[in-house]
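Predict the 3D structure for this chain.
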Amino acid sequence: MELLTLVMYLGAGIAAGLLAGLFGLGGGLILVPIFYLSFPLLDVPSWAIMHLAIGTSLAIMIVTSADSAYSHHKKGDILWSEVKKLAPFYALGALIAALSTAFIPSHLLRYFFIALLVYVILHSILKKDFTEDHPLSDYRPPNRLVLALFGTFTGCLSALLGIGGSPITVPFLRNYKLPMVNTVAIAATLAAPIALFGAAGYAITGWGIAGLPDWTTGFIYWPAIPGIIVGVLCTVPLGTRLSHSLSDKLVARAYVGLLIAVLIAMIV
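Done. Predicted structure below.
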């Protein structure tokens, strides 16, 4: 079982890294379902499964988001002016959510995760502009008040669910007609403050709670981390290159397809 678990997490890391580079996901949308399905095999108590899944996902996301952001930065895809406006609010929201998570039952976190996926899928499908091609000249940045409110809300919800912000950030920026290649680059970069402050909060709120497995720091399960990080670091550059080789419309549609697959996994 230990070898099988290691192989499974290595495979999860390969998938998460590829998708992080391609869609700016930060890995959370893939890792949380993987942990949700695998932790029962490791005798993790049911009341702690989602908390550990989210906390561990956020800890891994510190590495995956940083690596993905660096990969996009080298290609010049990140609009740093937009990142600087949003990052402080993402960090604030993430810390608030993570420090509150101990008071939320695990099954409610799962329902929130599913509800978010349903919303983003419907928004992306019904919003015709999402899957259209947009040059950078089409982009019309939102004002600072909108960015502040959106950033705090997104950081809070993303840390609460361990998703890195991409499912919310991508539709938001696409609504202002930002090209997908820039959108996913910004989403990947903004996942870093969510991951850092969110993981710290999950470690603090889970500290000293009885019944958690060995090798945990609060709600972070360390044995799952090495294999995933190795897989991620190997495939993030490939995902980034793919985002440049595919059309804007195709990447947007593939993004929606991925969200639908993750939704099915969480419901089943």
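The chain has a mean pLDDT of 84.
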